[in-house]
Amino acid sequence: MALSDLAGLLLPVGIFLAEMIVVTLGTLRIIFIARDRRYLAPLLGFFEVTTWLFAIAQVMQNLTSIGCFLAFALGFAAVNFLGMLIEKKLAIGNVIVRIITHQDAGDLVDELRAANFGYTCMDGQGATGPVRIVMTVVKRRQLDDVLRIIETRQPRVFYSVDELREASDGIFPMPKPRRAGVVPAALTWLAQRDGQPGHDLMMPAVQEEAEDAGQGYQQPRQCA
User: Least buried of 2, 61, 110, 207, by fewest C-beta within 10 Å?
Assistant: First the structure.
């Protein structure tokens, strides 16, 4: 294969990959703007526009190349869902879960408390009679754990999940350690540094109980 033929093949591939990066960064940037990540969003915007300039410059220099046009269009179309997939894997931020049930919610709140999830429980009135409303604010990466508790204890109950833009201190279980890729781990670290300053949100329920009772809380010892 001649060198010119190889260059003609690699150029559309490079444009395709560059456009994939552009759309992915653009999706993440919009999501972080909505989450008020005022430092992370401009950083992603810088790399987004830099990569876009490279891709569009190659297309403009090869206006007669159908391969460059197709690579640019296919890169945009094929990666529309990739940015949302990465954002889901990052699971940055908090959500509020509202549970409305006609049954006794005692077993449900006991399970939430045992898992160190904070909650607020109140009485309400629905279209068919009195109901019990349970609300809890959780980390997005811990949402599956809460939904698993709900489906186990009251599988036919009504619940809704909404994004939460900002929250003060609360009760959250300690996060489980997990391995992440290089890019998600780096974005998660940047997002955490870009968050609003405040107290540590990872306060177990037992610690809050001790503080409410006026007792000192001692961190449990770890086994050697």
Answer: 2
Q: Which domain holds residue 143?
A: 94-181
Q: Is 112 within 8 Å of 170 (Cβ atoms)? A: no
For the segment 189-197, the average pLDDT, to the nearest whole number, is 53
74: pLDDT strictly greater than 90: no
- Tally of structural domains, the chain: 2
Q: Which long-range contacts does 126-130 make (Cβ < 8 Å, 24+ apart)?
A: 126/100, 126/102, 128/102, 129/102, 130/102
Q: Which amino acid is at 28?
A: L
Domain boundary among 58, 90, 122: 90
Highest mean pLDDT, choosing among 18-32, 80-94, 161-175: 18-32
Reported pTM: 0.56
